[in-house]
Amino acid sequence: MSAAVTAAAAVQQQLESALDRWEADILGLSHAIHADPELSGEEYRAAKRVRALLGAAGFAFDAVQPSLPTAFSARYGGGSLVVGLCVEYDALPDIGHACGHNVNAASAVGAALALAAVADELGITVKVLGTPAEESYGGKVAMIEEGFFDDVSLAMMAHAAAADVVGGTSLAMCNWEVLYEGRPAHAAAAPEGGINALDALVVAQTALALARQQLPAGAIVSVIVTEGGSAVNVIPERAGASVELRAPDIATLQVIEDRVRRCLDGGALASRASLTVTPSGHPYAELRQDRYLSEAYRKAMVLRGRDVAFDPAPVASTDMGNVSLLVPSIHPLVGYEVGGAVHHTAEFAAHGATASADRAVLDAAFGLAMAAAAAAVDPPERERLLG
Question: The Peptidase M20 dimerisation domain covers which part of the protein (predicted)?
Fold first, then answer.
């Protein structure tokens, strides 16, 4: 047996031993977050729980912390290769952890605890970033803008799912809040004196429906009306909508942003209403997963008895996409039994603290840790990631 193989086996054993040692704490964290869901940007108790566990494991919290109140930055070790672990912990209104972010959080923390056990040996720094509000405004993007990913060599997290998948992409996305403002008038006595804001929105929706045929392939435009008048006998003074745009990549997203904005402007022009378009959160870029790290993760998961599929198809949208355009990243899906339920349903949330979900937490933690370790001891890969 070669020295390299022996060393790799020793690292694997150390990672497994660390996960065994911290298993109760890791699963306790998953269950606590699952039982106590908090909405985007309000994850105070979840962040406190994660920080407490990291502190108990000897992680130090950076002197400068993110401005988002439920974000944090912590690290262990002093090696040149900085492994970033992204911890998501926000839930959805009314249905709790229907996207499995308690599994996401616990698996990332588990990977960090495992890697801390070999940080000196591998010459790495384990950097854990608490990244709030993935379901809404994109905490990772805010943290990129504040420089918290500047020293990161590679970034990792796993996402809860019904099946194990690596290599997937995501759709670029942005959200707008649209408001038309006109002038009220009595709908029967003096309709000519009004400016109908709802008419503006109807014209805009019609223009969008016609424009969809000419949008780039893969473009998705979704609209809901949030405000459309208060009384049938009053010309609506205000009309509002939420607009969500998705595209295969950020460049295509910018193309459809221009087309959609023209449709919205058309509604204002036709009705004489004023228009205000307010971005809701940060635009999300497409996810680009690193092939080497994905393959290293897949091989590690085989050791846990998992058959992990490689599938490049896009799955929803995530602010991890923005991270992946900045540094080599992975965002594999880790599967557990969900009874046929799909993400963002109460049924999916109900399975988040089961024995199957617990196994997913520990397996994903192992897979992420092993992928980082593989890159750290592979000279060409280490040079690439440091370059």
Answer: 176-265
What is the per-residue pLDDT across 14-41, written as a single tens digit (0 to 9) for each?
A: 999 999 999 999 999 999 999 999 999 9
Q: How many CA atoms lie within 13 A of 332 on its CB side?
A: 35
166 shares a domain with 184: no
One domain for residues 152 and 300: yes
Q: Which residue has the tokens 């036709």?
A: 270
249, 113: one domain: no
Task: Answer whether 237's CB lies under 8 Å from 179's CB.
Answer: no
Q: Please state, in angstroms and rounded to a whole number, the distance separating the CA atoms of residues 124 and 332.
A: 22
Q: What is the mean pLDDT of residues 376-383?
A: 98
- What was the pLDDT predicted at 93? 97
Rounded CA separation 295/78 (Å): 26
Q: What pTM does this model have? A: 0.94
Cα dihedral 44/48/50/51 (nearest 10): 130
Partners of residue 128 on adjacent β-strands? 74, 85
Q: Within a 13 Å sphere around the CA of 278, how many CA atoms are in the beta-carbon half?
A: 10
> Is 138 found in the same domain as 231?
no
DSSP letters spanning 225-284 = EEE--S-TTB--SEEEEEEEEEESSHHHHHHHHHHHHHHHHHHHHHH--EEEEEE-SPPB
End-to-end Cα separation, the chain, in angstroms: 32
| Last-in-domain residue among 279, 298, 319 | 279
pLDDT tens profile 201-230: 999 999 999 999 999 999 999 999 999 999
Closest C-alpha to 280, from 323, 242, 320? 242
Q: Cβ neighbours of residue 218 under 8 Å, at least 6 residues apart?
A: 171, 247, 248, 252
Q: Which of 279, 300, 324 is the last residue of a domain?
A: 279
Domain residues for the domain of 222 are 172-279
pLDDT in tens, 316-371: 999 999 999 999 999 999 999 999 999 999 999 999 999 999 999 999 999 999 99
